[in-house]
Amino acid sequence: MPAAPVLPPAPVLDRLAAVGAGNQPPSPAGLLAVFNQLPDPRKPRGRRHSLAAVLTLATCAVLAGARSFTAIGEWSADAGQAVAGLLGVSRVPEESTFRRVLAALDADALDTALGAWAAAATTPPAGTRRRLAVDGKTLRGSRTPDSPGRHLLAALDHTSGVVLGQVAVDAKSNEIPALPVLLADLDLTDVIVTADALHTQRQTASWLVSRHAHYILTVKANQPALYAQLAALPWRRVKTAARTVERGHGRRERRTVKTTEVRAGLLFPHAVQAVQVTRRRQPLADGPATTEIVYLVTSLPTHQASPTLLATYAREHWLVENRLHWVRDVTFGEDLSQVRTGHAPQVMASLRNLAIAILRLTGATNIAQAIRHHARRPERPLETIKSLAC
């Protein structure tokens, strides 16, 4: 029986094929160019597939919903030579190739390269500043009997929902010294960095300001002297500057915000405003109401950040949970992943970050729906990557 004819590749992919095969210089902003810059961990002898081709196919598979090495290999096999040929690949890589390459790849170099690409691909709207939410996440499925799960610290752009940086946190350390490493390669001029109470550290604030950035940091009991000083401010004499009422998650939440200038005497470097946020939550069903008071400090002066803006920026920080961690856990099944070998846990997390970035930068608002769209036709992930490679 003669072999089934292979349909010609879609014209929109022709230029991507030329880039992958080296027939024309890649765009500096293109993902293929990014992948080509990475050091290949394999020995030259016996190498059948370029690193750029392997990483591009892996990215395509993750865009189509692949969650494991096996799934990446299966997607590549199903996509077949009609898709692999567009990257100049004469033979589709097997699952073992993806496993070996992703486990041996320099994960930090990958994150640095992807962060630079994402920063170049995202610009704040006119008249606004870039805002970065810094937060960490443990890859629970990467635990072994002898070691805890890999912990990664990421910086998410508030506006675009795109990760601009990721770094592994040493198992014997914590997130605090990792923050300067995470942000070291980014241009922080006039950028607002938001972080939770763990990062409310004097050295962190001083480092950010030395890089011409601003901070909005939460203050909790880990800074008892500062917390006591903020709580003792004459808040009763400060007028409420912003008030919101919202319903959701089975409760009604009333939020009030007060701000006051603190140009001298506060036990925190470069802080010029203190913020008090009072949250009163009332269950819609029967149940007692709860009240929580949170304090923030910021280096933003009053003429640059009104109380309403400060309240908005503080709430935006938790987009890192909703738009990144939740998506990776629920949509990509990250906490269920049993990938544990070498650098593979971090690399797989990086590919998930990249897939989310690609989808958001091409207009997707529902990540799960976008993944299903890309899963239905094998050429669609390449078409989407092509749209960003120009």
From TrEMBL:
Report the residue ranges that make up the Transposase IS4-like domain in this protein.
128-356
**Name by which UniProt lists this protein:** Transposase, IS4 family
One BP annotation, GO: DNA transposition
Matching InterPro entries: ISAs1_transpos, Transposase_11, Transposase_11-like, YbfD_N
Give the species. Answer: Frankia casuarinae (strain DSM 45818 / CECT 9043 / HFP020203 / CcI3)
H repeat-associated protein N-terminal domain mapped to chain residues? 33-118
Family matches, as NCBIfam families: transpos_ISAs1 (NF033564)
Q: Name one GO molecular function term.
A: transposase activity
**Stored Pfam families:** DDE_Tnp_1 (PF01609), DDE_Tnp_1_assoc (PF13808)
